[in-house]
Amino acid sequence: MLVAESSGRSQASKKVSMESRMVNFLKTLEAEVSAWPNLSIHPHRFGGREFRFGNAEVGHVHTGGTVDIPFPRSIRDALLAEGLAEEHRWVPDSGWTTFQMRSETDLRHALWLMRLSYLRYLLKTATDARKLFEQESEQLHLSPQFRSLFEPFVPRTADRVSPEPLSV
User: Which residues make Cβ contacts (< 8 Å) with residue 146, sequence separation at least 6?
Assistant: First the structure.
């Protein structure tokens, strides 16, 4: 009887510990993502927190640690092929991905995925999108494949016009 009670307390203690860790992961994720420029946080319609760049959803996280992030189909397919995310459970044939946080390493990966989604929108508003893309690619350690998949989101800058007046 003592063994069963001890085992029951041990299981309950582990459950509380896991729940406490998950709460900390969620708080850390929200704190880090909310510090990014032009990003706002809102309650998600299915529970959890939603992260938006303007009106565009960058992704959302559910209270159990499930992180859902939309991507263009090409990026989503590459993430799935590399095992960096999973198909979304409710809309598997879409650009949506799912990732489950269970550890500190998973938290870091969830932040990486969220930053990838955020980068697409950030590039649209950057004054020097090429420079930003180079910096972010290095910081995120993007492979050549992912760099090429993000290239279409780097706005082309117009050729610089000479400040000198034209001769008449």
Answer: 75, 78, 116
pLDDT > 70? residue 161: no
Token pair listed for 59 = 């992704």
Q: What's the pTM value of the predicted model, to 2 decimals?
A: 0.82
In angstroms, the first-to-last Cα distance of the chain is 102
- pLDDT tens for residues 120-137? 999 999 999 999 999 999
Say if CB 98 and CB 68 are below 8 A apart. Answer: yes
Residue appearing with tokens 């929108």? 121
Which position has the token pair 């879409």?
A: 94
Q: Which residue has the higher pLDDT, 160 or 110?
A: 110
Domain 23-152 fold: Aspartate Aminotransferase, domain 1 (3.90.1150)
Tell the residue number behind the tokens 């290239």, with chain if given. Answer: 151
Cα dist. 104→62, 64, 100, 114, 139 in Å? 17, 15, 12, 15, 19
Mean pLDDT for 34-54 is 92
